[in-house]
């Protein structure tokens, strides 16, 4: 077995999760950005979340703000799978969550924010593309509801966007670096509800296996990493994940 770095926070084996859109569909959030997602299948919708279009076309920004206002994310509640991960963490098992989702549902279920690495950012915050100032999406959407079609930065007048990684934007190298450290250090790596087709996120599964972690894939469809996995589970995530994680609670 390959040598592992010690788990952050002590000797107990670290349990890592990489979660994708599939973990949130039971919460009413469709897959937007995956290879088969809503955005990739609709070129007009994809424009709204493509950085160059967003920065150069005021009409794209106007439609983006309308889309954000109608997002199912604001009404979504964590489901049984998010809750199972939170329960594991609350039981004292060292847990880190790496997520491709921007819905904040792991934190809403009770996983401390410092233990959640959001590869694609967070839809609940807004960032200025000019000065980097952060504010809340709720405040920005209030301005939209009050009639501002493309609210600008209150500090510098710059273009505002959601604090998510758009198509054409690189992942935050710091977040990615932390995710890679987690993949190298963990004892077991669950890839849940992700097609493992989008890099560099998908490569974290390979990295974990390379460093000796047990790899468990929980996804309805086959993934490119299934052959590398110790366990592949096709059952619905909402029932499969609570069952799988119960194993760590009995020790
Ligand atoms: Zn600004």
UniProtKB/TrEMBL annotation:
Deacetylase sirtuin-type domain ranges (all copies): 1-251
Keyword tags: Metal-binding, NAD, Transferase, Zinc
Catalytic site positions: 120
Entry keyword annotation includes Acyltransferase: no
Enzyme class, spelled out: transferase
Signal peptide start and end residues: none
Top-level taxon of the source organism: Bacteria
Annotated residues for binding of Zn(2+): 128, 131, 153, 156
Gene Ontology molecular-function annotations: histone deacetylase activity, NAD-dependent; metal ion binding; NAD+ binding
InterPro entries documented for this protein: DHS-like_NAD/FAD-binding_dom, NAD-dep_sirtuin_deacylases, Sirtuin, Sirtuin_cat_small_dom_sf, Ssirtuin_cat_dom
Enzyme Commission number: 2.3.1.286
Protein name: protein acetyllysine N-acetyltransferase
Organism: Streptomyces albus
């Amino acid at each position: 077995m390959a040598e592992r770095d010690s788990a952050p926070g002590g000797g107990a084996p670290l349990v890592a999760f990489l979660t994708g859109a599939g973990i949130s569909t039971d919460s009413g959030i469709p897959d937007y950005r995956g290879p088969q997602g809503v955005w990739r299948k609709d070129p007009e919708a994809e424009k709204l979340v493509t950085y160059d279009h967003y920065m150069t076309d005021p009409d794209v920004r106007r439609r983006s703000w309308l889309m954000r206002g109608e997002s199912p994310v604001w009404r979504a509640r964590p489901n049984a799978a998010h809750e199972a991960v939170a329960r594991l963490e609350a039981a004292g098992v060292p847990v880190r969550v790496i997520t491709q989702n921007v819905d904040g549902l792991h934190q809403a279920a009770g996983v401390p924010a410092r233990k959640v690495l959001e590869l694609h950012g967070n839809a609940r915050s807004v960032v200025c593309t000019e000065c980097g100032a952060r504010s809340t999406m709720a405040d920005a959407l209030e301005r939209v509801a009050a009639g501002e079609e493309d609210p600008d930065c209150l500090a510098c007048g710059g273009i505002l966007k959601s604090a998510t990684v758009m198509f054409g934007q690189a992942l935050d190298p710091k977040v990615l670096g932390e995710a890679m450290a987690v993949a190298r250090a963990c004892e077991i790596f669950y890839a849940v509800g992700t097609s493992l087709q989008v890099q560099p996120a998908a490569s974290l599964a390979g990295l974990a296996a390379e460093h000796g972690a047990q790899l468990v894939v929980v996804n309805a469809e086959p993934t490119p990493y299934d052959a590398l996995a110790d366990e592949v589970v096709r059952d619905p995530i909402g029932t499969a994940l609570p069952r799988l994680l119960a194993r760590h609670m009995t020790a």
